[in-house]
Every structure is written in structure tokens, then in C-alpha cells.
Design brief:
heterodimer; A: about 475 residues; alpha/beta; Rossmann fold; 7-stranded mixed β-sheet; 5-stranded mixed β-sheet; 22 strands; about 20% strand; globular; B: about 350 residues; 6-stranded parallel β-sheet; two-stranded antiparallel ribbon
Amino acid sequence: MAIDILMPALSPTMEQGKLAKWLKKEGDKVKPGDVLAEIETDKATMEVEAIDEGVLAKILVGDGTDNVAVNTPIAVLAGEGEDASTVQASAPAPAPAPAQAAPTPDAQAEGLADRPAPDGRSGTDQMPRAEPAAPAVISNRTTHDAMAEIPEGTEMVTMTVREALRDAMAEEMRRDPDVFVMGEEVAEYQGAYKVTQGLLQEFGPRRVIDTPITEHGFAGVGVGAAYTGLKPVVEFMTFNFAMQAIDHIVNSAAKTLYMSGGQLGSPIVFRGPNGAAARVGAQHSQDYAAWYSSLPGLKVVVPYSASDAKGLLKSAIRDPNPVVFLENEILYGQSFPVPKLDDFLVPIGKARIHREGKDVTIVSYGMGMTYALKAAQELEKEGIDAEVVDLRTIRPMDTDTLVASVMKTGRCVTVDEGFPQSGVGAEIATRIMEHAFDYLDAPVARVTGKDVPMPYAANLEKLALPSVAEVVQAAKAVCYR
Amino acid sequence: MAVAARKAGRAASGAANKTNPSKNPVKKAPPNTPQFDKTQDLDAYREMLLIRRFEEKSGQMYGMGLIGGFCHLYIGQEAVVVGMQMATKDGDKVITGYRDHGHMLACGMDPKGVMAELTGRRGGLSKGKGGSMHMFSKEKHFYGGHGIVGAQVSLGTGIAFANRYRDDNTVCLTYFGDGAANQGQVYESFNMAELWKLPVVYVIENNRYAMGTSVNRASAQTDFSKRGVSFNIPGEQVDGMDVRAVHEAGLRAIEHARSGKGPYILEMLTYRYRGHSMSDPAKYRTKDEVTRMREEFDPIEQVRRRLLESWKLSEDELKAIDSKVREIVNEAAEFATHDPEPDASELYTDILLPTS
């Protein structure tokens, strides 16, 4: 029985990768553990090992092929007694997935990829194979707000959120010798999610520091260094692990300026991926925006697009206050147009009207924006003109922009992946009630993560997260449609 | 002189043996107990007396309701911070926990500002917003004043990281107690400090009780000088009631850290005469134990005897020092009593710094 060798996934969020090279050729005998090939993604390189014994009968995807979708057969292994020359692949060799090309700047495409749908990696036949989501091209009706941040005529380049964050750190490190980066795997490994790629090479081990796995300890070390005026960028591999360090973020960083009567600030950035990734279970899937946003003395930034990621991280590093900078693993690989400017800053504390509309305001941030923008598209088909506000900063919250939008539309839906109780949606709803009650034509509706620990099973996970359909439904509900 | 030195030796043994008689041999201070010259003894006496009188006054003012909340007195432990600070150089940094009044005075911070902070007044070092546990002085290189037990150990390690980053040849003295020594982040910090050879001296003030829990009820290894062994950090036990022994060990530890050899641990065997905080009746130990420590090992009395016997100062001269110190303390208390509370508008200031 011939066995298909499938394109493996390097991470739960990987959808495709490059088959860099084959280390075995057709006709070679292989046994379990033999390295067959090398595959690459923008994050890492990994070896494909043989699981079964046999003869490599046919290579279906050649050296150097880009965009090979996970689970595509890449070769066929002939079993014992089979004639390697006659075995057939069970599936035709696919063409490289075309859909994931980076958007062109002039298309202003944003919100390209969706969260990877559950795929067949578990090997069960019942599980439908995921189709990569079609690119959802949102016409970017960006308003004055963002236009003011990017001067007219600025050349835009396409880059991923990951690259934008790296460039932000590199630019600030070039500008200010007091800026340094520390965290687990940030230096020699080039970042667990490759966000710090190349920093060690440019800035050396004095300024790009690998720490032991001791979140509590190195967060405290970072804050101590910040007390003296250095500007640490502390990377948490994920914000789930920052729970070990939250005492230093809250008690040592956020409160010291006040407790010292204004003498001692903490110019520090805590950054890393936050929120649910995909299929990583309850302890690794949580949105901490609401937690940190309840604290005076902290700023909390959650970018969605690559240009905001870059401009806001640069502002965060320059900010004399502690900033919690919440990124998202799924957004890291998504591409957006980013202005080609020597020093592009986005102000902290300003929301952005991502899409203008008159019927209903959809407020979101970070990963939630992917649902909000797609929902706005769906709603447009049904004749509802939604305005999408990207908060970008959760604290200090840009109440003015929110209120102005709701005064215009009279209706509001909030979208975030956090838990519902005491969440960011709850906070937005309260502010709107306080400041725009008389303008509301319907109660504010919340779309949030469900009130459960994140399940592992693909179907349950999908249910636990917000969906485009839920946002559409909520928007229609507040429009009484 | 000889009498004082012998007594000091016993103090250290007594403190250690009491907690774990068989397993806890004191690493004796070098056989020749270090000596102070007259100026050093006089300086140490003045500094320690200032802390003692300041803390006695704080206790009184707490009783009068002028100081609220938590108030952790340093009485009994004065030799530790005074001896260590005498071993520092200009620019060296200091960080400690919540029993911090003595450290601030030893760093040269204004007693009026400290006392007014205790009473929550606008002239307090943190404008009345920090309280007993939270004062800071960039000018005097004092980085607090931290209320979460053990937090200052990571923070102090970070300050030492900054010293190394700037290559400014300074060290950070990181003080914490026998209670904090059991916190996990202490060992995370030890690991990084030795890994990166950071210029930090960890001063463990073992006053034998973590709040109401004696060391041998809370610590599997009661010899805290050995707590760095698995990280290759050298450590030693020091008679923390003898300011000369503290100073001498401090010089050695600071030199080690400053020269790039990495962190150093000093376990100071000391004793707190008062309760953990003002609300602690200290029922977990006998009155006799406290009395014995006060009568036989008091750090200030040791120096006073030397000043009288070796340096031939008269009782009158010592009284003059005492009244000078009392004057400073009374002035601080007076100020802290009459200084107004912070203006209500201060509620919303100092939360965030303006961005440029």
C-alpha cells in the first residue's frame, strides 16, 4: 500500500510553506526518522522526517516550491513488495496555493487571511479539509484620521505585521542607545514567532538579550532597568505566560510613578502575542486587554494592521510610561500596506475610523477587526452601511471618536475575543451609555468570546470565538432588521 | 574592646544556633574582628542612633494616630544598613522592601521628608501618596520602598543590569529578609545575576522571623548564605549586630560585584526588637529572647561601649550626640505633624508622564 507523505504544519497557525529542498531522491530507501526534506515558512525552517519505511517512489512537489498548503501530498512512499515505479499518488499533485499572495499596496487590501479553519491534520476523515479563506478585500474607506497620520502621496510598501514590529524595534534601537530587547528566544533563535528576526545580528548580545524561562524574574529585571532610565522592550513569548509576571507589570511598573510622587517612572514596553491562536487550548488562548486596561498608570495598545503595529510600537517605545503592547499570532503573518517613511509614528490613545458608515458603529480592536471588517462587507450586501472603528489603544480609550461615531449612527456593536464579563465590550457600552445615551436608537450589543475556558476541539473552539455571522446578526439586531 | 568583639561573635552564633543548632554553623567572621577607627565608630554611632530614635518616634506617632496603615520598624537591625552603606561608593544604588525607613536615612534622605511621608503629608518624599513602604530618591540612588515581598530582588537585579549596560562601575545593594528569601523570583534573579555577572550584592537581613513565622518553621535550609550555591554565587554569614563585621563583609562583597565577578550574598544575622509591624504583639517569641538580644547584642550599645572605653569619650559627649539626633528627629516629627495634607488636586497627578 503506497503511503502519501503530506506537507506538515510547523505550528498550529501555519497554512502553507515552501518546500525548500529534498534530501532524498526518488528510488531511495527510507526508514523512520530519516530526514526527507526541508520546509520553510516565514517563521522557521524544519525537517520533514519519514514516519514509515519504504522506497521514495515519487516526488510530487519539487525543490523550491512556494506556497505548498499544509496536508498536500508532497511525495509517495512505496511499501514492502510494491513496485516503486508503478505507485500512484492518491491525490493529484496540487498546484501551489495561489490565494495567499501579498496584497498590492494600491489595492489597499487589508484583513487578508482569516483564522485558519480547522483542518484535517488530526487525520480523522470526518473532519472537513479546510479551504484557505478567500482573500476578503475590504475597500479601504479610511478617513481623515489615518490620512493625517500618513501624509498624502506617501509610498506604501506591503509588509507583514511581524516585519512591521521588527522594523519598529530596529528603528527605535538605532535612534536611542537606551532601548534594548529582552525575552525568551529573542536573540539567537530570532524570536519564538520570529518577530525579533535580525535584531541580534544588527545590535549584538548587549542589546538583544535571551533570558532564561523566568517571566516573573525578567519582568522585574526589566522594570528595575527602566527605573534607572533605560527603555526595555520585554517580550513575552505569549501574554499567557505574563501571568507569572503580572505583579511586576501592575505593582512595580504601573504604580511607581504615583507612589513616588512623580519622581520615578517606568519607561518600559511589555509586548508579545495575546489572545487565542488556534487549537492551543485554554491556558494559551486568552485576551488580556481587559485585565491590563483596568489599571491606572498603564497604557494598553492592541494594533490590528501592520502600519498601526509599526507606528504604535515606535510610539510605545518612546513613551515615558509603561505600555502593554498586545499582538496576535494570527495577525503576524498577514500583510498590509505600510507607509514608507523614515519615522512613522501613530499616536497612542487615538482610535481610527477604519471604514465610514452611517447605519451602525462596529467597534473592535486587534484580531476582532477581522470579524468586524468582514461583517461590514456582509452587511453592505444587505443594505446596512456599517462604520468600523478600530480602537487601537484600549487605555487610554478614545471615547471621543467612539461617541462621535455613535452620535452619527445611533447604534453600536462591540467585537472582541475576550471574556464577556468586565470585558472591553462592557467598558465601551458603559461609556456610550454615559456619553451618548440620548443618541442611541437601540441598546449596545456585544459580540465577545464565550464565557468558557477555550476548548481544544476544533468545532468547540470555533464556537467559543466570535464569528462574522454573530457580528452581522448583532448589527442587524440593533438596526431592528 | 576585646569584650565587645567576643560578644559580637556570640551574637552571631546565638542567632544561628537558636534556629537550627546542629546544621547551621556560623561561618565565623575572620578571626581578627575588623576594627573601626574613631571617626568610623562615631559615624556609625550617629547613623544608627538616628535610625533608632527616628523609629522610636515613628512608633509613638503611630500610637498617636498620626501614622496610619502599615509601619514596619527597623529597631535592632540598624548595624546592617549602616555598615553596608559605609562600604558603598558614590553612585551605588540601593533597593529594599517595606521595612525601609532605616535604609532611606542611611542613604541620606531627609528625615523630615521621610517622616512627613509616614504621616501622609504634602512635604513627604512621595507627596503623601506612597506611605511608609513607598519612598524613592533618584538623587540619593534609592529605588524604594517595595511592598510585595521579594519583588525588590528582581528589581534590584534589573538596576544592576542597567549598571552593567551603562558600564558605570556602580553596584546595586538589594536588601531583603529571611521571609522574602523563600520567594521564587529570588532564585530566578540569582540565576540571571550570575549568568550575566551583574554587579549586585544581595543582603539578606535574617531577623529570624518572617512576620510571625520563625526561620526554622519556614525554611528547609536556614543558612541563607548557601541559598546561592546552586547558582555558584558566593555567600557568607555575617554578624549583623556588629557594624564593623557588616562593613568589612560589605567591602568584600561590593568589591566582588564591582570587579565584574557577579553577584554576592551576605546573610546578616540580625534581630528585630519590635513586632513585624505596629499591629503585631509578637506573641511568637518570648520576652526573654527579646530582652537577651537587646541587653547582650544591641548594635548601638556595642559602639557606645567602644566610644567610652577605647576612644575615651565622656558620657557628656555621647549625650551631646544623642541630643543632636533627638533634635533632628523632633524637628522631623514636628514638620510631619503640621505639614498640611496633599491638596485634593494631587489625586489625579503623577499617574502618567506626559509624552513629548
